[in-house]
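Readers outside the structure-tokenisation community will struggle with the description of the input data as it stands. For illustration, here is how one protein appears when written out as sequence plus structure tokens:
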Amino acid sequence: MKFVDQREWIAALDEHGELARVKVPVEWTGEIGAICRRVLNEQGPALLLENVVGHERSWCTKLFTGSLGTAARVSLAMTGRKDVPRRELSEIFLRALRSGIPPTVVPTGPVKENIRRGDQVDLSEIPVPLWHPGDGGRYINTMCAVVTRDPETGFLNVGTYRGVIAGPRQIATLLLLGAGWGEHFVKYAERGQEMPVAVVYGWDPVMDMCGGSQIPHDVSEYDVMGALRGEPARLVKCHLSDILVPASAEIVIEGFVSSDPATFLPEGPFGEYPGTYGEARPRPVIRVECITHRDDPVYRGSLEGVPVGAMNEDAAIYTITSKAAVFNTLQRAGVRGVLDVRPGPVTFVRIRQSYNGQAKQVAAALWGSAAAEHFWKVIMVVDDDVDIYNDRAIQWALCYRVNPAIDLLVFPATRGGVLDQTIPLAERNDTVLGTGRWNRLLIDATRDLRTASHDHFGRPTWPSMSTEPDPRDVTRVEERWRDYGIASPERRSKKA
């Protein structure tokens, strides 16, 4: 499915009854964040806030948020329908990871309708909320695309990395050296150069999906967007650099990042994906020198953070794209027998086991991939007879398929997320370590092949489960059910 721009996406949401236009005045200082939290938790509509207090006369007056906050809207963005199953959506995303359609470059586009330089650059003109009451400022980079170019190869990286307004022309950013743009940052620093950067707000929703997803470092996010759209992304050259951005984007901020620690500014705290606030640290700054935007632009942002029982846009996207990322990673690594995966705080992988060490191969492949920076801390691998979508089945496997003495494998001191509060503060110091220092866990809930019998082909066989009656008796009971006079649960509840 393709959308020419964010405006066409907003119109589609409106047509499908998935948009609420908030026309009354709302405060950016906390009211917007509270509205978003309630709407996301209730799985309500996307929001177009048209009257943000203090921005009535800004060059940008509107905020668009929550458009990918439900599985139905993610389905709509990818296919034009709201009812496509998640498994099918993951398969669509997996095909896009592998097939890619490269972008095309066009001379100009609507995003060039207005060009602001010098004194016209003022980030406070954009209606960015204080998303959480404990945030260290107005986080402008939440649902966006940060674009950088490798100075050696010319490869474009498109990612979503948080950033807070630190001044009229400054965005303090979470720039991790192990991330895509972090690798570019190191190369520019080694050359003694500042890194050019562009930040895109508001385009086809596939940009928001791809920017924060686990896409291999050798795959272009723009190529994946093209495959999802069914046609190339139309890009234009930035005003100050050779970075390419969508021609019909709403807003593009252009600037440079210095590696000189003297230029760093405090970034944080910020309410992030674990549902807690990350610490404030001095971090690199985007020095904004140019803003291009459409007439009457609509800023795109998102409420981050998923405390227990809550929802956000990233969670809705993650259930689709991370499933595809796990399949893609395991298949590229040559792991056989992977039947299904269920990503989440614990990632479940269901396999058809055929050789020793298969569960460990699953964990090693995932943990060794670039996509593991913030994901797959705990992995549980089960056999093909366990339903990974049934929590009781998972608990059964945890109890009756796991020998704690040999089936719990801790893999220490890997790269990992810097926001995990279980890790000592010094081991989350990305300035020193470049990333976090995670200990990971594999729960091998597969059967031990050493205990199996084998058929005449040498394939493992296992004792039958003792919980199901003989199929012939099941058929007999079905035929005679009315004769027994046993009331159904529904009838019993009515009598009560």
